[in-house]
Specification:
The structure holds two protein chains of two kinds. Chain A is an all-alpha fold. Helix content of chain A is 59%, strand content 0%. Among the domains of chain A are: 46 residues, no CATH class; 40 residues. The termini of chain A are far apart. Chain B is globular and about 50 Å long. Chain B is 77% helix and 2% strand. The longest helix of chain B is centred in the middle third of the chain and has 26 residues. Chain B contains eight helices and two strands. Chain B is an all-alpha fold. In chain B, helix 1 packs antiparallel against helix 2, helix 3 packs across helix 7 and helix 6 packs across helix 8. The chains are: A mainly alpha, B mainly alpha. The interface between A and B is medium-sized, with 29 and 39 residues.
Chain lengths: 177, 172
């Protein structure tokens, strides 16, 4: 009895398990009809393989698609470097601020601590002011007045002069019956 | 080896191994190189963007084949609705345009066209199985996993597809 056609197809693909695989091999050795049929299936397989897209034929597609990913999805070496550059750039701003503050402090020290020296006049002629009695006044003179500086009588007199009628009540004091 | 789909190193490994298989499979479903390139690119974009993790390279391969196969079949269905028979006859499936040795190329072109048309005539469930068997380097077990059918079903479909192809090609 000849081998089933489907079994031959499976045998061709190398997917037939034992013991059928050995049995089919032995059968093929003496059965010409089955050998011819297997030959036909093999020819079809080879015909299909002969039209398969080759590596050379798809080379351009492979490069193009990979280039797409390299351009759009993967970070490039330049982008990686620019990350560090960004970090450095971010650190430059505080550095400039610190330098500016330092310069202001140095100039300020010239202005306030050695204004009358010839060098001070040379460096900042228009800004440096001489320190003398005209430019100095006591801080207490300019302090703002507050109510604590006046007595109750003075406050009442002042309000009275402005035309206010003032009535004074003492808290926590009960009048004697 | 675990594969992280959005990791550049993993991606390149998978791409190198799987792209040729995808192109062959998709080409023999659609019959058009440019379209196959677009479909493969789309499948790999989905693969990358979904940021998935696969236990092995083979699992990533099965996923990519499944996605690209679905994209290809959807496209073919859409095209068959849109395309007139005249346009279908005009289409040139071979990418051999610039090679030398004209006569040989012409024969190859014709053979490819005949085989490709025969494959396209197969009902979808037979077409996919025979394309995967012949062009993806996968065995019955792996094909069963990709198509989510049993191994014995793959065996039967491969055989029936061969019978159909023999019948179609013998009429040419």
């Amino acid at each position: 009895m000849c081998v089933d056609d489907e079994l031959l197809s499976t045998y061709l693909d190398g997917e037939l398990d034992e013991p059928w695989k050995t049995q089919v091999s032995e059968h093929l050795q003496y059965c010409l009809a089955c050998r011819l049929r297997l030959g036909q299936l093999k020819a079809l397989h080879e015909r299909l393989q002969s039209v398969a897209l080759t590596t050379e034929e798809m080379a351009q597609s492979k490069d193009r698609v990979l280039a797409f990913f390299e351009e759009t999805k993967f970070p490039t070496a330049d982008q990686k470097r620019s990350f560090w550059r960004r970090k450095i750039e971010m650190k430059v701003a505080p550095a400039i601020l610190t330098a500016a503050a330092f310069v202001i402090v140095v100039i300020g020290s010239f202005v306030f601590f050695s204004p009358n020296t010839p060098q001070g006049q040379e460096i900042l002629p228009g800004v440096v002011a001489p320190i003398d009695s005209e430019h100095i006044r006591q801080v207490t003179d300019v302090s703002k007045p507050n109510l604590g500086m006046f007595s109750l009588e003075q406050i009442i007199q002042h309000l009275d002069s402005l035309g206010y009628s003032v009535k004074i009540e003492m808290k926590a004091v009960t009048p004697i019956e | 080896m675990e594969v992280q789909s959005n990791d550049e190193r993993s991606f390149r490994l998978v791409y190198e191994e799987v792209f040729p298989i995808l192109m062959r499979v998709v080409y023999h479903v659609t019959g058009n190189v440019d379209l196959s390139e677009e479909i493969c690119q789309e499948a790999f974009i989905r693969f990358f963007d979904k940021q998935m993790s696969f236990p092995s390279l083979n699992d990533a391969k099965y996923w990519l084949i499944r996605v690209s196969k679905n994209l290809a079949i959807n496209h073919v269905k859409r095209r068959s609705r849109e395309m007139s028979m005249v346009e279908k006859l005009k289409k040139a499936p071979s990418p051999h345009a610039n090679t030398t040795d004209g006569e040989k190329v012409l024969i190859e072109k014709e053979t490819r066209k005949l085989v490709q048309e025969a494959i396209e005539e197969l009902p979808e469930k037979f077409r996919m199985v025979i394309v995967l068997k012949e062009y993806s380097d996968m065995d019955y077990k792996q094909i069963a996993q990709v198509l989510n059918i049993s191994e014995s079903n793959v065996k039967v479909r491969v055989y029936r597809a061969r019978k159909m192809l023999e019948s179609i090609l013998s009429q040419e």
